[in-house]
Each structure stands twice: as structure tokens, then as C-alpha cells.
Design a protein that fits this description.
homodimer; alpha/beta; FAD/NAD(P)-binding domain; six-stranded mixed beta sheet; five-stranded parallel beta sheet; 12 helices; 30% helix; 24% strand; globular; disordered C terminus
Chain lengths: 440, 440
């Protein structure tokens, strides 16, 4: 490639991670005089807030994900690389992905979060969270198979385990999953089985703290709890989990037999901090400078769930989408300003409020002075989520899916995919088998 | 369970397979005085004709599949069992699924087809067909990853292999896949890459016989060929494949380097014939009596792709949906008639014609005296496929997906799912790497 010796070289910006934060930076740099490379281990941007709906069979993966290339295709300065980053060489200024090396002048790490198990990493085998599409379809498979197996299970104790679903973690994620599970069991599957009654499935939501949704005000936490209990969810607050295994969950005072434990209780940062050897907090988030750069590396920025950023009260900002997006806009503007020779004041976050939905028609909203619960909150939640989806097509599809589910109570993606399920080995041929031919 | 000793026991009907054939029998028996059990190794009914659209990222799996339980939920006499059948005990009259045994008075085997490799079973590792949802998402992953890898491939020979796609088999399936692949490469992906030009991807359709679509009349085969060539597909007829391996396809006179071979050239019956020890044809299909029962077992029926049924000219009926559906209706009526003490004349098939689509706006239709090609044929194909989908929701979703793809040329399900792709190991850091930062 011949270079004109007096043409200034364009700055090379590399963004690792195409979630809310990374994609916001990329789009904000669309017209910047730079060469942009976006690196992600998946070929799609995922709208994570709705992932639990894939796990509970209401939406398909493609409804909430868009190929990164399609999102960025109009940006002539952008290139997309599907790769898994393995480290950063800060001396040579290169991102390492396997044997591949990607040089940068400015680097943005927006690699998100992983689940954390508070020192009980062995629980991860039994209590999986949902962070990726494959997590969600795997959980969907697990949930639907539990009902299928329960239908022909003779042992009432095992049937009880199959029809019990335990969600650990009472934040927005846990609340939303619990509500959706209740809808699935009590509505969508209600008349589909002959031996079992899915409406009797037990759904338990466990929270270690004194109330659900700790980021909301108390009366909204109460509204959420009531809505869940109306849906038949057992809510247990001030309850710690002492153990998880393949047959159940142990609490301080009792044991719940279950084959499906869903983890929504803790997250930690991605490995970005380790790649940099930077100072991190206990969750692994990188303690960034007021301009979101890594101390000692003014050209490396960390944002989103992987960054530890303090707000005006000195508290760390939560790992939610609006935080990542505001940080992304700031970093994009800062990079362009610095290239032009200027600078910006430190980053400041403006809180746009919080939302959480509970099942089909209820939600809680806390936004500036606005406090809502119930139906109106649910409408606002739906509109906001649809608005923030990337891509007109996804918005239309999700809106229609929800309209369908609302009207019909049916869920549009009730598929068990993956390897063919091995039939459980049964050695007895007891009275239960004849039930196959009972007049229902 | 107490039985009244003088109440007649209802006949137990077991259907294995919930495809077109099996599901037609099940639905036709909705009001029959029987106890019905439907057994399938998946929890969903799959609309196979559109599976290639999942493989080419135009539709999501849930758009073309419906849970069997939902389809049958209104039938109080029906029970659904998710299990993989392993054999039939004709002495005791039981279906065997692992250690589970399901007794029957009437048995219907509608277990469909698998791919056949004409004695070259070793090719199956390199040239996969699409028969299930997991086949389709695996192929989708393979195709999309091929483009992703080609984008950063330095070696032009390897890049050529990655950007070459070979479809073996010029029947309706191969033609439809070839057309969809061309649409994907030339439209949906066209501007999404910076180093490669997807519109230059090579798509080759290979047919051993003298023309494509042998079941259609010659002029329609020609129309299909022309449409494919207009889409940039290389059509090779009268060409036999001599070998398949991981780096390409060998023909009699040349070799095509490719990393993606799609098999659409041959099918064989499921193992039902082996379960019964019945007489089968060379494709493993059970040679049934004129009433579709297995010779010697008047209460066991085989239908659909697994059955060898002769038409008025003595030729075996093809493995297509209308055949399975008409056979299913017949068997359901026959079972009810026999239970009531009567009988029916032998099965007779009425041919409703053939359809095949080529890409976005072309198709061929052959129906009674009607011969169509081009746009009108394509509209008819679309309407027919939407009509035959099970479930209003799926019809609406597929219609909207197609409208979207038609208008935008974008494909709605371009996700690479499954295990995270390992980045290819590159040891050289040649000029290609700097291309990442070229001004596009």
C-alpha cells in the first residue's frame, strides 16, 4: 500500500465489545477522521434486557439481536472483526486475539460483565445465568424439558423437583425472569399437558437483602412483590442461599428440591482489568480516571459494566444500559476532541430512571420525580424497550410478538433445540404407564 | 385406576412422528373414540419446506415450527410424548423408547427421511444436509462464519475456498438453497464487508442428471436454470461428484475448492423398516400394502417418506408433503372405519402439482394443466407455503419476514449461534493486516 509521505495518517481506534457501550462509541464516531475497528466475539449486537424473554420462549434470538456489520455498514471508516480478544500489549499498542494483533492509537474496552458466584464458583454448574443468546436458548431448553419430563415422571418427589423453578437474585433481572416463568407455566403451557398441571409449578424467587429491587424506592419494591405473588411466585427476601447442587437449593432454614436454578444474583466485570494489569474493584471493574481512561494510559478507555465509575455521591455507577450509552457518547466525543488538539471536562452521568416489568401487565418505573406501578408502568416499559432496540425491523417484530403474547397468552418461541434429548431410563412399568391411555 | 368391567376399552392409537403425515393423522382423529399418543423426538412440528430459509438466515426456527402440544392441545383424547423410539415389539404390541414401552392397538409410523450418500457415508462429515432445526442453524453458522473468516484471510487460495459454496443435488431442495445463497451473498451481505466482496462469492449447483428439477417438465427446468444463472449461480448438470473432503469437491473433470458443501442429493427412509423387519426398497422405505399397512400386520401403518407406495402407473410416490398428508387422512379414516367394523378401498393419491422457488422473485409451478414460471409462480409459491404453515401466528410472522426481506433485501436472522468461534491461528503479519486500517 503506497503512502503519500505528507498525508497525515488517520488515528486508528479499536473498540472491543459491541454491546450498548461499544456500539454507542462506534456510531458516534461514524463521521470522524479515523480508522475504526470493532472487535466482538459474536457477530451480533445483543439487546440484553430482553434476553430473559428468549429464555422463557417468548421471543426468538433474532428478534433481539442484529448483525454488527449491518448496524455499521453505512460507516465507511469502520471495519468489523469477529474474534475473541485474549490480551492487550500496551507496550506495542496492540490488541491480541489469538495470534492476531490489532494495532491501536486509541483503545476502548467495553467488554461487559460475567456472572459472579461470591466465592462459590462450583455453583455455576447448577445455577446458570443468562448473558448470551446461547445461555438463553440453553435455559429455554432446560425449562421446557423439565415440563416434558415431569409429564411422564412416576416418582412424585422427582416430579416435584422438575416442576419447581428457583430464581436466585431479586434485582430487576430476577424479578423479570420470575414473572415470565409464571406466565409461561400458568398461561402458555396451562392446557398442554395431560398428567401434570403446569399451573401448579412452583416458582420461587430468593433475595438475600431485605427487599426486591433494591435500587427502587420501598413502595415500588412492595408493588413488585405483590404483583409477583398475584402471579403465584413465592417471594423469599432476607434469605441467603447456602448451597446449590443438581437436585436443589439449600437455604438457611430449608431445602427446595429443584432441577432448574436460575442465577440472577451477581455479576463481575469481564477480564479487561486483567489484560491491562490495572487497578480494579472487588467485582473486577477497572478504576478509571474522571475521563474514563485507565490511569497511566490516557489513550485507553474502559466503559460500561467493566468500568468502575463514581457518581456525584461517590458511589459506583450501576451496570445498566443508560450508563454504558452515556459513557460511550462521552468517550467518542473525547477521542475526537483530543485528535483535534482539545480536551473535555470529566464525565458526568445523568440518571434517566429505572424500569422493571413483572409478567404480562405490571411493572414499576422510577424516573426523576415520576413513580409508577401497574399497567401504566408496564406500557411505559414496553414502549421504552421497543424504542431502544436497534433496528426498525427488530422493533416491529418484538412489538408484534408482545401483542401476540398479550392477546393469546401463547409464547412464540417454544422450541427445544440442541442435541436430541435422551429419554430418561425407567425400569419400572407401574400404574403410571397406563395413565398414558387414560381418558383425559 | 378403577375400570368398569363392562365399559369397552378405547382403542389405543400410537403415532410415531409429528411431521406432515403423523400430524395429519393425529388431527383427523381429534374426535375419534380412541386414546391417542403422539411420540416425537422433538417437541415441535417442523415445516420442512422452509428449513433452507433458516439455514440462509432469512427466518428464525420459531417462525417455522410449532410445539406439538400446542397444536394438539384442544384434543382431549390426545397425549404427547417427547421420546426417541428405538424399536417395535410386534409380539407384545408395544413401541420401545429406551426403557419406556408404549402399548398400541393401532400403530402409525410416520418417521420421515434421512439423508443418503449413495454408498459414500464418509462424505456426510463434509457435506451435510438440512433435515432438522439444528441442521439448519449449524449450516447458517457455517455459511456466515465462512464470510467472516474470508474477510481476514490473507491466502487467496483459502479465501477462494471460503467464498465458494457448493450445493450437490438439483432437485427442488438444491435449487431453493442455491437461489437463497445467491440472495444472501449478493444482496444481504453485499456492503457489509471491507476486504472481501461477497457479491463475488461463487455458488455452484451440481446435478448428476441431465437437468434440474427432474419432476418438472423440461421447459420449467430450463426456466429455473436461467433464473439461477441470472442470480449468478453456476449450474452444472450431467456432472457426477466423485469425492467430498474438507477442502473441496471432486468432479469427474475438475476440482472445486470449498469449505462449505451442502447436500441435497439423496434421501433414505428412517429406520422404521428395520424396527419392523419388513420388506423395504433400496432407499429403506417399507413396501406397504394397498391400504398402507405393513404386510402381515394389519394394525400397523407406515406413511410419508418412510413408505414405498405405488401410484396408478406403478411408480413409487415421491417424498413430498402432499403425499404424506393425503396418506395421513386415509389412515385416520381407515382406523376409525375399522374400529366401527367396516373397511375402505385402497389408498389412491391425487397429485396437486409441484412448486419450487428460485431466489427473491422467481419460481416454477406445475399443477394439473397449469404451467407457470417467473413472478406469478413466485407469488403462488409464497401464498401456498404460507397457507400450509401450521398456525396463524407462524403464517403472519413468515409473511411479514418475507415482506421485509423483499423490500429491504435484508435477512432477518443473520446470527452466528453456538460455541464461540475460535479465531483462526495466523502466524504471518503480512500486508493484509494493515488493510484493517485502510481508508475503505
Amino acid at each position: 500500500m503506497t503512502e503519500l509521505s505528507d498525508a497525515p495518517k488517520r488515528a486508528r481506534v479499536v473498540i472491543v465489545g459491541a454491546g450498548f457501550g461499544g456500539l454507542t462509541v462506534a456510531k458516534a464516531l461514524a463521521k470522524a477522521p479515523i480508522d475504526l475497528t470493532v472487535v466482538d466475539q459474536h457477530n451480533y449486537h445483543l439487546f440484553q434486557p430482553l434476553l430473559y424473554q428468549v429464555a422463557t420462549a417468548a421471543l426468538s434470538p433474532a428478534d433481539i439481536a442484529s448483525p454488527i456489520r449491518t448496524i455499521l455498514k453505512g460507516q465507511r471508516n469502520s471495519s468489523v472483526l469477529l474474534a475473541k480478544v485474549t490480551g492487550i500489549d500496551t507496550n506495542s499498542g496492540e490488541v491480541m486475539a489469538g495470534d492476531r494483533r490489532i494495532p491501536y492509537d486509541y483503545l476502548v474496552l467495553a467488554t461487559g460483565a460475567r456472572h459472579a458466584y461470591f466465592g462459590h464458583d462450583d455453583w455455576e454448574a447448577y445455577a446458570k445465568g443468562i448473558k448470551t443468546i446461547d445461555d438463553a436458548t440453553a435455559l429455554r431448553r432446560k425449562i421446557l424439558l423439565a415440563f416434558e419430563r415431569a409429564e411422564f415422571e412416576h416418582d412424585p418427589v422427582e416430579r416435584g423437583r422438575l416442576l419447581a423453578f428457583v430464581i436466585i437474585g431479586g434485582g430487576a433481572t430476577g424479578v423479570e425472569i420470575a414473572g415470565a416463568m409464571a406466565e409461561l407455566a400458568r398461561k402458555a403451557l396451562a392446557v398442554d399437558f395431560r398428567s401434570i398441571d403446569p399451573t401448579n409449578a412452583r416458582i420461587v424467587l430468593i433475595e438475600a437483602g431485605p427487599r426486591l429491587l433494591p435500587v427502587f424506592e420501598e413502595h415500588l419494591s412492595e408493588a413488585a412483590r405483590r404483583s409477583l405473588e398475584e402471579l403465584g411466585v413465592e417471594v423469599r427476601v432476607s434469605t441467603a442461599v447456602t448451597d446449590c447442587d443438581e437436585a436443589g437449593v439449600s437455604l438457611a432454614d430449608q431445602r427446595i428440591g429443584t432441577r432448574t436454578i436460575i442465577w440472577a444474583a451477581g455479576v463481575q466485570a469481564s477480564r479487561a482489568g486483567q489484560w491491562l494489569g490495572a487497578e480494579t474493584d472487588r467485582a473486577g471493574r477497572v478504576k478509571v480516571a474522571p475521563d474514563l481512561s485507565v490511569p497511566g494510559y490516557p489513550n485507553i478507555f474502559v466503559l460500561g459494566d467493566t468500568a468502575h465509575v463514581r457518581d456525584m455521591d461517590g458511589k459506583p455507577l450501576p451496570g445498566v444500559a443508560p450508563v454504558a450509552k452515556q459513557e460511550g457518547k462521552y468517550v467518542a466525543e473525547l477521542i475526537q476532541t483530543r485528535i483535534a488538539g482539545g480536551d473535555l471536562p470529566p464525565f458526568r452521568y445523568r440518571d434517566p430512571g429505572s424500569l422493571a416489568t413483572i409478567g404480562r401487565k405490571k411493572a414499576v418505573v422510577q424516573f426523576r420525580r415520576l413513580r409508577l406501578s401497574g399497567y401504566l408502568a408496564w406500557w411505559l416499559w414496553s414502549v421504552a424497550h421497543i424504542y431502544f432496540l436497534i433496528g426498525f425491523r427488530n422493533r416491529l417484530v418484538v412489538a408484534m410478538n408482545w401483542a401476540w403474547t398479550y392477546v393469546s397468552f401463547q409464547r412464540g418461541a417454544r422450541l427445544i433445540t440442541g442435541p436430541d434429548p435422551e429419554p430418561e431410563i425407567r425400569t419400572d412399568k407401574g400404574p403410571g404407564m397406563e395413565r398414558l391411555h387414560e381418558v383425559a
